[in-house]
Amino acid sequence: MRDDAALVLFSGGQDSATCLAWALDRFAHVETLGFDYGQRHRVELEVRATFRARLLREFPHWAARLGEDHVLALDALRAVSDTALTRDTEIAMQADGLPNTFVPGRNLIFVTFAAALAYRRGLRHLVAGMCETDYSGYPDCRDDTLKALQVAVNLGMERRFVLHTPLMRRDKAATWVLADRLGGAPLVEAVREDTHSCYLGDRAQRHDWGYGCGACPACDLRRRGWDAWRGAHA
């Protein structure tokens, strides 16, 4: 198992794209993994290739480190969930205080499948964009959840994977700061233009912070983070 190699859970969104740059800055070999689970905003999978190609083109010092891309189909996740991310339904808050964009078990499943792929590929490090600082309250984004999952995966696979969550303590403004630190204006522009966060999958409307409907929780978080970051650098 290579200690200098990582697998990044790369959805195509702002957070995972920043984590991909973070991994390329640290590891000699980096592969990426996306999941097709019938998500409403499936366009995020389509922008992944565009973002990767831009990294290869504009960041030659990372190009030699960027390895194979993988996409796994997890149709069962859509079949067992009834959420605004897997059904054409209005986004709303639920009685339990969570938004109905929460897909139960999603990150638990994602990390487990990532570990299984990393096991086969011989990659020690797993990198994911979960965050509990500036998020929608999803319980499977919490640091305690991810630490417990790392223990379970390592015990169950008899490996010593290291799960990195570089954004866990960063809000969205700090995520833009990190992108700027890692790759300067070119990386910020790549994240802005070639990633997707909008839960409705809207790529028709262009905003200062990127593409999206501008009203869903994901767009709101991304916009507020962008405005805070830009305001601090005005």
UniProtKB/TrEMBL annotation:
The keyword Ligase applies. Zn(2+) binds at residues 198, 213, 216, 219. Binds 1 zinc ion per subunit. Its EC number is 6.3.4.20. It catalyses: 7-carboxy-7-carbaguanine + NH4(+) + 2 ATP = 7-cyano-7-carbaguanine + 2 AMP + 2 diphosphate + 2 H(+). Keywords: ATP-binding, Ligase, Metal-binding, Nucleotide-binding, Queuosine biosynthesis, Zinc. ATP binds at residues 10-20. InterPro entries: QueC, Rossmann-like_a/b/a_fold. Its cofactor is Zn(2+). It comes from the Bacteria. Pathway: Purine metabolism; 7-cyano-7-deazaguanine biosynthesis. The keyword Nucleotide-binding applies. Catalyzes the ATP-dependent conversion of 7-carboxy-7-deazaguanine (CDG) to 7-cyano-7-deazaguanine (preQ(0)). HAMAP family: QueC. Belongs to the QueC family. This is 7-cyano-7-deazaguanine synthase. The gene is queC.
